[in-house]
Amino acid sequence: MSGAGAPDFYYREAQRLGYVARSAFKLLQMQKQFKLITPGASVLDLGCAPGAWLQVACQSLGPLKNGGAVVGVDLKKVKVPQLHCDARVQTVCADVMNLMRPQARALSPKGNGFSVILSDMCPPVSGIHTKDAVLSSELGMRALFLAMGRCSITDSSSLVSSEEVMDSSDDDEDGVLKPGGHIIIKLLESEVSQGFRHLCKPRFKKVSWLRPKATRVLDHSLIGRCILVFGAVDQAST
């Protein structure tokens, strides 16, 4: 729904097409533009509730015979939507901030890692923009840390404290994103989020910023501070 509480176009379309949330259209736009999820891909969806991105991800895998897998992780227990999902989709109830890379990798097919990582995680918005931006960046850095390993945290002190995203007990250096893979991280737009471009540019072949058309402006004062989707396309070889 829109900020005023009235159903908008994307809300109505989601209901008509069987998506559990309007956010499905954000991933649909990114998928159309970048072709991130291909038949047979393995997808990790961080912050998967209520399941709309699970639906789009599964659709993007193509027919069941193509194989592939979609794993959703969320603090909440998420039921796999009946529409647009099949046996290739599963969900796990876990705190991403405490999820170790060996645990995340074990969720992938044959433990080989994921070809696509989606992070739709966003903190509860307090209305204090600086606070919300930092919390959003912490979640984004955690997703990047899981995907890329310790190399993703190098020179990141200007973004968030590494203590917020790293755990000394996680000694596995490698990330769970396969070489040549893709990652999408949702961030609250801010000066802090701009640092992600500089952090990720040398680590990926291409870094693209996108504000999907289905992004919702909750309040006029938030224009320019809306959710920004960060897409890293094609992991650079290391």
From TrEMBL:
<dbReference type="InterPro" id="IPR002877">
    <property type="entry name" value="RNA_MeTrfase_FtsJ_dom"/>
</dbReference>
<comment type="similarity">
    <text>Belongs to the class I-like SAM-binding methyltransferase superfamily. RNA methyltransferase RlmE family.</text>
</comment>
<dbReference type="Pfam" id="PF01728">
    <property type="entry name" value="FtsJ"/>
</dbReference>
<keyword id="KW-0808">Transferase</keyword>
<dbReference type="InterPro" id="IPR015507">
    <property type="entry name" value="rRNA-MeTfrase_E"/>
</dbReference>
<dbReference type="InterPro" id="IPR050082">
    <property type="entry name" value="RNA_methyltr_RlmE"/>
</dbReference>
<keyword id="KW-0949">S-adenosyl-L-methionine</keyword>
<dbReference type="InterPro" id="IPR029063">
    <property type="entry name" value="SAM-dependent_MTases_sf"/>
</dbReference>
<dbReference type="GO" id="GO:0008650">
    <property type="term" value="F:rRNA (uridine-2'-O-)-methyltransferase activity"/>
</dbReference>
<feature type="domain" description="Ribosomal RNA methyltransferase FtsJ">
    <location>
        <begin position="19"/>
        <end position="216"/>
    </location>
</feature>
<protein>
    <recommendedName>
        <fullName>rRNA methyltransferase 2, mitochondrial</fullName>
    </recommendedName>
</protein>
<keyword id="KW-0489">Methyltransferase</keyword>
<keyword id="KW-0698">rRNA processing</keyword>
<dbReference type="GO" id="GO:0001510">
    <property type="term" value="P:RNA methylation"/>
</dbReference>
